[in-house]
Structures are given as structure tokens and as C-alpha cells.
Write a structure and sequence with these properties.
The chain is α+β, with helices and mostly antiparallel strands. It has helices at 2-14, 33-44, 85-96; strands at 52-54, 64-67, 77-80. The protein starts with a helix and ends with a helix.
């Protein structure tokens, strides 16, 4: 699951173009979720970023779950395939509140 999510984070990070941050001396090369979060923090000048992967399970059962929620040495993220706003908010709060 982590390898899958890191591959998606790498693809998402490639869409931002080269790192132009003047704050950090070393350039951020997005190759996993942690680097994606760091890049988003730099771009938007914020401390809190939540990574949520939305799946389109058109013909399959719906699922949603937080991954590594409450584990301090792993990057937290959530996988959501429900289209219900309450479920999306619920998973969002799993990541922010632990």
C-alpha cells in the first residue's frame, strides 16, 4: 500500500515543475508522500497538509480507511472511494485528529 501511494505522490509531485523555493537550500525532489507534503507546505506556506487518495470504484464495494493514523514514524494518509461528503470529512478528521 505504501509503495502504491508513494508512486502516486511522485506522479503528483512531477506536475508541480521544478522546486523554486528560496526558503530551503536543498531542492525538494518529490519521490514519496513525505516529499510531496514538504513541497505542498512550501508552495502554500502552511504547516498542515492532508494527503487523501480518492478512488473511483464504480463497480466495486466502497471503502475508506486511514493508513498509519496515530503512528509517529510513518506518513499518514487516507484512501477514500465513497462519494458521501460525511465519509470524506470523517476520513479527513482521522488524519488531523489522533
Amino acid at each position: 500500500m505504501d509503495d502504491w501511494s508513494n508512486a502516486i505522490a511522485k506522479k503528483a509531485g512531477n506536475s508541480f515543475g521544478p522546486d523554486q523555493s528560496a526558503v530551503v537550500k536543498t531542492k525538494n525532489i518529490v519521490n514519496n508522500k513525505e516529499r510531496l507534503i514538504a513541497r505542498l507546505r512550501d508552495i502554500h506556506s502552511t504547516d498542515n497538509v492532508v494527503v487523501m487518495y480518492f478512488l473511483n470504484n464504480y463497480h466495486q464495494d466502497e471503502m475508506s480507511l486511514p493508513i498509519h493514523s496515530g503512528i509517529s514514524d510513518k506518513t499518514e494518509y487516507s484512501i477514500v472511494s465513497f462519494k458521501n461528503p460525511a465519509v470524506i470529512a470523517h476520513e479527513f478528521l482521522h488524519i488531523l485528529v489522533h
